[in-house]
Amino acid sequence: IIHIHRMSGVLFGKDRRVADIPTDHPTCSKQQAVIHHRLVAATGQVKPYVMDLDSTNGTFLNGKRIEPARYYEMREKDVLK
User: Using an 8 Å Cβ cutoff, are 34 and 54 in contact?
Assistant: First the structure.
C-alpha cells in the first residue's frame, strides 16, 4: 500500500529506477505523469494536481487528454488513464 496523500509528489512511468508507481503498459512512457499535493493559500487546503510529463500517448483525466506540463486539479472519483 502506498499512501500517496502523505507524499508531496508521486511519479508514474515505466522507468522503475525513478517511478514511484511503475506502469508496465506498452502505451505508457518512461516518465508518464506526476501527482503533486499543493497548498491552496486561499483556503488552506492541500489538494492533488496531476501533470502529464510530455508523454508520447498522453495522460487522460476523466476521458479527456490533458495538456503536457500543466497542472490539473483532481477531485474525488476522478479517473486517471
Answer: no
Judge contact between 35 and 52, C-beta under 8 A.
no
Please give the grid coordinates belonging to residue 72: 490539473
Measured CA to CA in angstroms, residue 55 lies from 42, 49, 58, 59 at distances of 32, 17, 5, 7
* pLDDT tens sequence for the chain (81 residues): 778 778 889 999 999 999 999 999 999 999 999 999 988 899 999 899 999 999 999 999 999 999 999 999 999 999 999
Q: Is 4 exposed, middle or buried (0-12, 13-18, 19+ CB in 10 A)?
A: middle
Q: How far apart are CA 71 and CA 69, in angstroms?
A: 7
Identify the bridge partners of residue 8 per DSSP, sorted by sequence position: none
